[in-house]
Amino acid sequence: MDEKMVLRMEHVTMQFGGVVAVNDLSLDVPEGKIVALIGPNGAGKTTAFNCITGVYQPTNGRVEFMGQTMICSHPTGKMKKTYLGSEAQTYVNQKIVNPTPDHVVELGIARTFQNIRLWKSMTVFENVLVAKHMRAKQNVFSASTRANAHEEARMREETMALLKEQGLEQYKDEIATSLPYGLQRRLEIARALATEPKLLLLDEPAAGMNPQETQELAQYIQVIRDTHHLTVFLIEHHMDLVMKISDYIYVIDFGSEIARGVPKEVQSNKRVIEAYLGVSEDA
Amino acid sequence: MLQKNEKKAVTLRTMLAIMVLLLLVILLENISSWIPGMPAIFAPTSQLFTVLKKGAVYSLVAVSMNLLNGFTGLFSLGQAGFMLLGAYTYAILTVPMAAKDQVYYLYGGSAVKFSLVDLFQSLFGSAGFGGAVSMICAVLVGIVCAGLVAALFAALIGTPVLRLKSDYLAIATLGFAEILRAIFQWQTLGPITNGANMLKSFPTFADFNIKNAAGQVVLRLSTFVPFLLSIFCIGVIVLLIHSSYGRAFKAIRDDEVAAEAMGISLFKHKMLSFVISSFFSGVGGALFAMYVSNAQAKAFTSTMTYEILLIVVIGGIGSISGSVIGTFLYVACSEWWLRFLDAETYIGSFKVPLLRSGFRMVVFSIVIMIIVLFFSQGIMGEKELTWAGIGGLLKKLKPKKKAASAGKEG
């Protein structure tokens, strides 16, 4: 493959106690593409996201971002004996790399949440402005003595521009959580974009949306990918949305990959249909 | 552009209001000596000035606690401990050399062989104007050191303690404060902390009253000084809260997971808030020592922390102006307005039932329970007192005017 991979997961396994939530998941996300991770409820999609973003330390496996090892882990302590996954020996001699979520964001991975997590006491404008905090060149003294007025003005300008771009400017002084559901989703994406990411992780962006809103979202995702030069990796339940915009699809069930391919291939894959529709006992 | 001008106007108005407030305080303090025959309430020994001084000191501590509890969402109960550190640092550094033998008489003098007061007096002289300058310098440097020591301890315990969440953090910080109180009363540290005895003879608010050659007070500034220092420190905290860092703190309070997912380092920002809050608690502790003219470990009990927590809750968690208003209300009630409940009162030969020493606290507890049960938002909730808000209030009830509160605008 001559394509440049933005994200590469290798043998990622996440085990909670005796439950393997993600099992030996390996996948590639090429630059500039929209890649989807689908699967039935409880398949481990969000857990996979949490392993990438540093919320969980995977039990085993490696995650590479822009060609650099971002996360690397192998079973330690009690998990050595209770580990149920595979590839236990592959990473034993490698150094454990376990960044906190804010480091992952700093590297250039931003995310949204399945259940919207906006800051409820803040306005729409402030919600986006706070996400600009990380990249601002300032310290606590320059900020509280207003020596960073220039930087602050730049942050506000950029925030305003971003809100305009996302069509949220008329709501800028409203409390974020008072917006309609669809706009809250859009605001969450705007907030993620404010961290200037290279890779955007969307966790069920169409959840709770009607067909019309889903339609708009599909276009919207493609537009922001182009205007912000992003790579998009998303989890989704709405099959029509996934089939329409994805360049490549990974399907997981019970934590393990069951299929991968372009939308057409996945659609006709027998195991995928079984996973989604169930399989009858006597089949 | 319009917005910018408006902002400037608000800043200007706030500065003016603060200046007017400070002038009012000076006027209030001195009116009894300038105009004879004023009511007893304006006498320098009146309860009014106790309330104003204590209110100024406590509002700083309340605001610093609010920065941590209300704005960053860290439920810490170590305030009294950091105040203790501040009070002792200030006292140890500023007890004059001449007074040391007398203060530390049980331990045969102090182990700290210098005093900021003497240090600056050797620079600027000890009499007249030079004396005043050296005292101001000594006090200011002492206060800054007080804050720095408190901040240093906060940084030291922050690493383990800030990993804890909610109630556990409260218990750990409360324990830290209690340990400090015990250590500072420890006999072995006597040459430094004077053991369980009090430190005194250091510069207090009363030393800022300007006296003439005969030793008579010409201009009283003993209430003005705590107001000035407190307003300055609260001003710094307000600037911080309205900066990018303040917004990051609020993001952590609202949703830690989202804050971290937007690149805000939880540890760094929690530590920052903890250290800054402790710095100002330390400064508040130094001011408290100046207010009571002594420093004694047994004054900084957990009851003091609860008192401040109460003020924060009454004023509104997450509101600076609420904390300030809450402080003055609380202090006025506990030191002044509800005092009559503690006195045995006779109307003719009829003894009013219930009124006896300690009854004030009963009434107080009931009031607090009512507030917590029915007005859990406090006076201000999360809102701030703003010019627009005051304007709206004035329009609503035209005849009533409240100029004094304008100075404490956020």
Describe this structure in words.
- The complex is a heterodimer of chains A (283) and B (410).
- With 283 residues, chain A is of the alpha/beta class.
- Chain A folds into 2 domains: 1-108 and 197-283, Rossmann fold (3-Layer(aba) Sandwich); 118-196, no CATH class.
- Chain A contains 11 helices and 10 strands.
- Chain A has a 6-stranded mixed β-sheet with strand order 6-7-8-3-9-10, sandwiched between helices.
- In chain A, α8 (211-227) links the parallel β7 (199-203) and β8.
- In chain A, α4 (124-131) runs parallel beside α7.
- Chain A is globular and about 60 Å long.
- Chain B has 16 helices and 4 strands.
- The model of chain B is unreliable at 400-410 (pLDDT under 50).
- Helices cover 65% and strands 2% of the residues of chain B.
- Chain B folds into 2 domains: 64-300, no CATH class; 302-385 and 402-410, no CATH class.
- Chain B has helices at residues 2-34, 47-71, 79-94, 97-103, 116-124, 128-161, 166-184, 190-193, 224-241, 244-254, 256-261, 266-292, 302-315, 320-337, 359-374, 387-396; strands at residues 210-211, 217-219, 346-347, 350-351.
- In chain B, strands 1-2 form a two-stranded antiparallel sheet. A two-stranded antiparallel sheet of chain B has the order 3-4.
- Chain B is globular, with a radius of gyration of 22 Å.
- Chain B is mainly alpha-helical.
- The A-B interface holds A 53, 55, 100-102, 105-106, 110-111, 113, 117-122, 126, 129-136, 138, 140, 143-146, 148, 152, 155, 191-192, 194-195 and B 236, 239-240, 243-245, 247-248, 250-251, 253-255, 257-267, 272, 276, 318, 382.
